[in-house]
Specification:
By secondary structure, this protein is an alpha/beta fold. Helix content is 37%, strand content 11%. A four-stranded mixed sheet has the order 1-4-3-2, sandwiched between helices. Helix 1 crosses helix 2 and helix 5 packs across helix 6.
């Protein structure tokens, strides 16, 4: 909550989030899936993330040397990611990205950002992990206790990151 829009920590947060979404087309066990942002910064985070993602050219890198993100590894993985996206859209709205459609073969899925306005009651968004360039952004009240509680709803993940310049907030998130 201490991070100001436009600050170095803010820029780092958005840079890393966009990279996590697009590196290996989001098909990493450690890729970011859920993003918790203080309520008063949620609109700015979504808008600026969309701008960053809009700069990433999606395509077949073997045919387009300017493509920075290619397709998912296999057609079944693409089908699974598309199905997962559709399921998440029952509790969250798409705020950035195109509908991936039901393409055949290795057609890429564009980076997609969902917004879940009620993370405390939307169990599905904490339980379903979609292996693709898809994240769900969720507001929280800015307290370390709320952030830790929402992170814990994921049932244990491989990685979590806190972007802050406030050592006490960082400590409180870990201790919660």
């Amino acid at each position: 909550p201490d991070v100001e829009v436009g600050s170095e920590a803010w820029k780092l947060f958005l840079f890393e989030l966009a990279r996590e979404m697009t590196q290996k087309a989001g098909q990493k066990c450690t890729a970011t899936r859920r993003v918790f942002v203080p309520e008063d910064k949620i609109t700015g985070a979504i808008e600026e993330l969309g701008e960053r993602l809009g700069e990433i050219r999606v395509g077949d890198p073997s045919r387009d040397d300017k493509a920075r993100m290619g397709p998912l590894a296999t057609p079944p993985q693409r089908r699974d990611a598309t199905a997962g996206l559709r399921t998440l859209e029952t509790v969250a709205e798409r705020v950035y990205g195109e509908d991936p459609g039901e393409a055949e073969g290795l057609a890429p899925i564009a980076p997609t950002v969902l917004l879940c306005r009620e993370p405390e009651t939307a169990d599905l968004v904490h339980e379903l992990e979609v292996f693709g360039p898809i994240v769900t952004v969720m507001p929280y009240d800015g307290s370390a206790a709320a952030a830790a509680r929402l992170v814990a709803r994921g049932g244990g993940g491989l990685v979590a990151a806190v972007y802050t310049d406030d050592l006490e907030f960082s400590r409180a998130c870990v201790e919660e």
